[in-house]
Write a structure and sequence with these properties.
Length: 223
């Protein structure tokens, strides 16, 4: 099933769009099945869970951290994480920089923006991002590299609302690209779109889509 689901999604992806298989709460055997179907990019939301899976699965997997990250848990992921999608405060970026330095790494990160209607969702707005990028602290950070933006659309059936939100994230990306990253080719990622809305996200310019239940089936939360 997982293999067929992956193949179905992949068949619809234009060049330049990377599928992040979101495997939170799913057992290692499900990830292995996806791996055997050539999936190499996985997204996880909980630091210890990602660490445990990283320890037992093949080493050529690229681990993307997509959940809300608390500074005291950075240590569980910092040595091997490929991309952190969820930088939502300046202090989190600073903490990631500090941990990355300990391991002599430069860690790729995305700035997460709040684009949804729900107030509970995390993320920066454009002014907060400007403050961060203009700060002296940011200019001193040598162990993080900002590669783009991430956002989550509203949880709604109203796909025109979601499309509007994705357009908003794309416009934030374009603004930051021209104002701060014009000469930095690594600033190229727009992470948006999940199981229910990824086709719209692709139409609106996504380069990374984060798909879970459409690959692995519905999640059952024990927590
Ligand atoms: C869980 C999650 C996803 C995947 O959600 P699905 O609806 O199962 O595809 C994508 N992005 C984030 C940030 C998530 O937490």
């Amino acid at each position: 099933m997982i293999k067929e689901n992956l193949e179905k999604i992949r068949a619809t992806l234009p060049e330049g769009v990377t599928l992040v298989a979101v495997s939170k709460t799913k057992p290692v055997s499900d990830l292995q099945e996806a791996y055997d179907a050539s999936q190499r990019v996985f997204g996880e939301n909980y630091p210890q869970e990602m660490r445990d899976k990283h320890e037992v699965l093949p080493q050529d997997i690229q681990w993307h951290f997509i959940g809300h990250l608390q500074t005291n848990k950075i240590k569980y992921i910092i040595q091997y994480v490929t991309l952190i999608h969820s930088i939502d405060t300046a202090s989190l970026l600073e903490a990631v920089n500090k941990e990355a330095k300990k391991h002599d790494r430069v860690v790729d990160c995305l700035l997460q923006f709040h684009i949804a209607l729900e107030e509970t969702k995390f993320g920066l707005d454009l002014n907060e991002a400007r403050q961060l990028l203009d700060s002296e602290e940011y200019k001193q950070m040598e162990n993080v590299r900002i590669c783009g933006v991430m956002g989550m659309g509203s949880f709604t059936d109203d796909m025109e609302e979601v499309r509007k939100e994705f357009k908003h994230l794309k416009s934030i990306f374009d603004t930051l690209k021209s104002d701060y990253f014009a000469d930095q080719p690594q600033f190229k990622e727009i992470s948006m779109g999940m199981s229910e809305d990824y086709p719209i996200a692709i139409e609106e310019g996504a380069t990374l889509i984060r798909v879970g239940s459409k690959i692995f089936g519905a999640r059952v939360y024990a927590r």
